[in-house]
Amino acid sequence: MSADSEVSFRAARPDDAETVFNITKASIAGLSRGCYSQAQIENWMGERTPRFYEDLITRGRMTVGLRNGIVVGFVDAEPGEVTRLFVLPEAAGSGLGQRLLDIGLAQARLGHDGPIRLEATINAEAFYRRYGFRSTGRGQFSHGLGGEPIEIVHMEL
Prior knowledge:
Blueprint: E1 7-11, H1 17-31, H2 38-43, H3 50-58, E2 62-67, E3 70-78, E4 81-87, H4 96-109, E5 117-121, H5 125-131, E6 134-141, E7 150-156
Antiparallel strand pairs: 1-2, 2-3, 3-4, 5-7, 6-7
Helix pairs in contact: 1-3
């Protein structure tokens, strides 16, 4: 993604659900290699469908990032936690993720006074550290298909 492309943000709409689903899949496949096994990547989404994201969107806490009018990333948060942040692989390193994280943190602070937490993938840990998050431990996350769980990093700011 070129630095001179137009970036904008807006609240996610129900018709963004399939796009957000596809961004999540593409981000996992494109940015997690080398940190997770092929089987982990293939099973990552569990039994999720675009409907899962439509339900999240209706809660009103998801923001999408657009480049030249096309959704290329999103962030979702709830009080005290940034729950999801994914960008297309070609948008990684462009500053979009940091801007989405700014939005997610503002959302996570609504109605919450304590530290902001998140569960980072191994490949995203350095991104969050650069932002000021610190590791509070490691864990595993299973996606409901009975496959190999993925290692995650518990972090807070």
